[in-house]
Amino acid sequence: MPSSNPAFRGIDKVVAGQAAPNAEYLQQMYDQPAYAGPRTPARLLTLDDVIAKTATVLGVAVIAGGLTAYFKAYTLMLPALVVGLVLSMIVIFKRSTNPALILSYAAAEGVVLGGISGWIESLSPNYHGIALQAIVGTLGVFGGMLFVYKTGAIRVTPKFTKILLGAMIGVVVLMLFNMVAAWLFHFDTGLRSGGGLAIVFSLVCIVIAAMSFLLDFDQIDKALKIGAPARFAWYFAFGLMVTLVWLYLEILRLLSYFRQ
Question: Domain residues for 192?
Answer without folding.
Answer: 43-259
